[in-house]
Amino acid sequence: MKTFKLGGVHPKENKLSSNQKIKEIGLPKTATISLTQCLGASPEPVVVKGDKVKVGQLIAKGNAFISANIHTSVSGTVTKVDDAVDASGFRRKSIVIDVEGDEWLETIDRSTIINNNIVASKDEIIAKIKEAGIVGMGGATFPTHVKLMVPQGKKAQSLIINGVECEPYLTSDHRVMLERGEEMMIGVRILMKALEVESAYIGIENNKKDAIDYLSKLSEKSLGIHIVPLKVKYPQGGEKQLIKAAVNREVPSGKLPIEVGCVVQNVGTALAVYEAVQKNKPLIDRVVTVTGTSVKNPCNLLARIGTPISMLLEEAGGVPEDTKKVINGGPMMGKALNTLEVNVVKGMSGLVIMPESESKRPSTANCIRCAKCTFVCPMGLAPYQISLMTESGNAALAEDERVMDCMECGSCSYTCPSARPLLDNIRVAKNKVGLIIRSRAK
Amino acid sequence: MANLLTISGSPHVSTNQSINKIMWGVVIALVPTMLVSFWYFGLGAIILTLTSVIACVLFEFLIQKYLLKQESTVTDGSAVITGILLALNVPSNLPIWMMIVGALVAIGVAKMTYGGLGKNPFNPALIGRVFLLMSFPVNMTSWPTTLAQRAILPDVITGPTALGIIKEGVAKGETVQQLMHNVPSYTDMFIGNMGGSLGEVSAIAIILGGLFMLFRKIISWHIPASFILTVFVFTGMLFYIDNTKFVDPVFHLLTGGLMLGAIFMATDMVTSPMTKSGMLLFGFGCGLLTVLIRVWGAYPEGVSFAILIMNALVPLINKGFKPKKFGEVVNNG
Predict the structure, then answer these.
(1) Which domain CATH number covers A152?
(2) Closest chain A C-alpha to B182 CA, distance in angstroms
(3) Same domain for B66 and B116?
(4) Average pLDDT, rounded, for chain B
(5) I want to staple A327 with a disulfide (CB 3.0 to 4.6 A). Which of A75, A309, A316, A334 is the partner?
(6) For position A223, what pLDDT does the model report?
(7) Distance (Å) from the C-alpha of residue A428 to the closest C-alpha of chain B?
(8) In this complex, do B10 and A250 lie within 8 Å of one another by their Cβ atoms?
């Protein structure tokens, strides 16, 4: 079975909610929609306090090259355009809407009939995806339309679809593949058309055999779409690792996947693309896994963007008494929330709840130079060395150690028997080196 | 519901590996070798091992508590390993007080002066052994015969090691073929029925421990394999050139501290390189130096010196042998 070669770890999978069907949760009383939901520039609000809005209506427009539109996920009245703490933990400009009914824009096709007739041209597809405000749903939230605009001189050869879901606990992509597989496959074909490629590879880890079987059956009907079962290994969902595993190409350091003729999109993104192009529906909802060892009902919920996460937590059986940590995303790369008063955003793939016993890091000891961190680093770095550079105040030296290749997968910290804060120190070094590189460019 | 949530950077989960698990795993791997030494060398071996372990743990505890004034880490098991390895590296009739001095040098000088576990450049047990060898050469090179040997030849209490017999004999002009009548059979060497340091005699017990550590992923195969293979190939070449002066490669593998050194000492995480390619070079260097010292050096045995010299080169090896980076060698066919 295929996988990437260099490094990698295998944390306990804990896919507690993999058998739970996606459940749509009700409308919130108020939706708070953060304007910082994509990588790049935040879009500018186009509504003001007092405006009446319908579901799917544009409320913030991305004007910069790397930016994505935001649409309202509810109908009602705009009550506030102001700062609020969002899932990133920072205060960010947000639009607050008081929900009144559930009135959708007439242009959106809300029927469940599957439309597999792709009539839009390449340019129309990209325009529609841009209009719909689609971003990478795996958590990176890079605007999808930008990824589809292949730079001059480069040629896309294959589309890679990321159904790996290598993070422990998370099952939202798994459920999307199982329950929305047919629509997602049409989304893949739309993306292939937009990129003008003949082949697409859907990488799925072997712990999702049902999804592999189901999509393999579906792919018999679509020429050029290949299902690639992958050995379970973290961080296989990393773009570069997935490309290596699926088509055995290695993206050079500091370069984008298009350098080796690949474009990677997540399965959730493919579904959103289907809805945008075939159904005219902008990105206003997503599947969020709510899970944890102490959670009563681990589940996969379809929630509108801007829904308070307290509603999701309630649906999963409430927040357990001994909860000490709530993670936005998976336990390897997700961010610990500092408050539960935040709302669903486009990049929220899951909420992992941890009791006190799991929430604390083990106490650190001296580095025993076991070299496990260098063995597991999927980018071939020497984490102990970069970490030492930071500790000794020489973070700038880390540039030569290729610290900017680090994608912060956390395999080094995960594997360290001395529980040293390797990734913390590497982040400091990345920050410092990033500043140096930017100042050099000026 | 808790009002305060814990905030920390990702990752939020970690492996169940810990220093304690690794170190106590090594101790378990050393059990067969210790049992063989108790079997062949009797009470003396048991007393020496206990003395060494207790002394090492006590010295580490006292130094951390009263000199460094830091939290004690003796329960991590690393001092126990040093104690066992040091005892396995001495003859069974070594006076107790010398054992204690050796433990003080191993823990006090070679480990704690550098800052404790993880900071020491040289293998502490080897420093302890080499210190004893240089300070008390007579005691450190009088090798008691095993209890099984004494049952046959009750008058022979001590004797030279097989390596010593060959080295001295060849120096006097005798041929290897003549000398081979005076050394134990290969079967005896393999199970450990020969004179020598406590822990170096039984190849089978050491290999058993090595396999356990490989299975538990405490060590990787790189250092032992390249170390042993280098010795085998190098001595094999010499044997091929002149088999009256040079002894065959199997003899070299089964005698002296080669197995113990290659599997338990050279693989010490703290004092070996951080990449697989570096480990291969490290093992090669250890093997090369071992043969050079055994064949042409002043001592009949060179494993300890070889490993210590290579320990000194580890920072250089780490500098030269970086991990293979992703996206460096691009082959996109």
Answers:
(1) 3.40.50.11540
(2) 43
(3) yes
(4) 91
(5) A334
(6) 83
(7) 12
(8) no
Q: Please compute Rg for chain B using Cα positions.
A: 21
> Looking at residue B154, what is its pLDDT?
77
pLDDT for B70-100, tens place per residue? 888 899 999 999 999 999 999 999 999 999 9
Report the alpha-carbon distance of residue B34 to residue B52 in Å, rounded.
13
Chain B hits for A168, Cβ within 8 Å: 13
Q: Which amino acid is at A77?
A: T
Determine contact: B134 vs chain A, CB below 8 A. no
Say yes or no: B11 contacts chain A, CB-CB below 8 A: yes
The answer for A 105-164 residues in CB contact with B (under 8 A) is: none
Query: Which residue type, as a one-letter code, is found at position B162?
Result: A
One domain, residues A222 and A337? yes
Q: Tell me how far apart the alpha carbons of residues A433 and A436 are, in angstroms, rounded to a whole number.
A: 5
| Residue B99 domain-assigned (yes or no) | yes
Per-residue model confidence (pLDDT) at position B2: 47
A229 near A2, Cβ under 8 Å?
yes
Cβ pair A325:B5 closer than 8 A = yes
3-state class of A344 per DSSP? coil
Q: Please tell me whether residues B173 and B56 are part of one structural domain.
A: no
Residue A352's DSSP bridge partners are A291, A327
ipTM score of complex: 0.89
- Taking CA–CA distances from B72, the nearest residue in chain A reads A365
A8 and A51 fall within a common domain: no
- Per-residue pLDDT band at B144 (split at 50, 70, 90): confident
> Are A232 and A164 in a shared domain?
yes
Rounded CA gap, B257 and B252, in Å?
10
In this predicted structure, what is the pLDDT of residue B323? 86
Q: Say yes or no: A413 contacts chain B, CB-CB below 8 A.
A: yes
pLDDT along chain A (442 residues), means of 10: 92 94 95 93 94 95 94 95 89 94 93 91 95 92 93 92 95 96 95 95 95 94 91 94 94 91 95 96 96 95 96 94 93 93 94 92 91 94 94 92 94 95 96 93 79
> Would you say A140 and A167 are in contact if contact means Cβ atoms under 8 Å apart?
no
What is the 3-state secondary structure of B31-81? HHHHHHHHHHHCHHHHHHHHHHHHHHHHHHHHHHHHHCCCCCCHHHCHHHH
Q: How far is B87 from chain A, CA to nearest CA, in Å?
A: 23
Residue B29 lies in a domain: yes
CA distance to A190, A286, A414, B132, B221, per residue, from A386 (Å): 43, 37, 16, 39, 26
Q: Is residue B69 located within the same domain as residue B213? A: no
Based on the fold, state whether residues A311 and A387 are members of the same structural domain: no
Residues A409 and A271 in one domain: no
How far does A253 lie from chain B, in Å, by closest CA?
5
Cβ distance of A417 and B329 shorter than 8 Å: no
Kindly state whether residue A109 falls inside one of the protein's structural domains: no
- Which among A68, A99, A130 is the end of a domain? A99
Q: Please tell me which of the candidates B10, B22, B325 has its beta carbon nearest to residue A335.
A: B10
* A106: in domain: no
Q: Whole domain around residue B69: which residue ranges?
A: 19-140
Does some domain include residue B333? Answer: no
Q: How many domains does chain A have?
A: 3
* Cβ neighbours of B326 in A, within 8 Å: 6, 240, 244, 250, 253, 378-380, 405
The length of chain A is: 442
pTM: 0.90
pLDDT at residue B169, rounded to an integer: 87
Residue numbers of the domain that contains A202: 1-25+118-360
If asked whether residues B185 and B102 sit together in one domain, one would say no
Picking from A360, A381, A404, the residue at the C-terminal end of a domain is: A360
Q: Please indicate if any CB of chain A lies within 8 Å of the CB of B73.
A: yes
Cα(A346)–Cα(A238) distance, integer angstroms: 19
pLDDT digits (tens, 9 = 90+) for B172-193: 888 888 888 888 888 888 888 8
| Contact residues, chain A, for B71 at CB < 8 Å | none
| Partner A contacted by B219 (CB < 8 A) | no
- Contact yes or no for B12 and A352 at CB 8 A: yes
Domain count, chain B: 2
B70 interfacial to chain A (CB closer than 8 Å): no
Residues A164 and A251 both lie in one domain: yes
Q: Is B115 in the A-facing interface, judged by CB distances under 8 Å?
A: yes
B116 vs A: CB within 8 A? yes
Task: Select the residue from B3, B13, B111, B268 to test the A interface by mutation, using most A Cβ atoms within 10 A.
Answer: B13
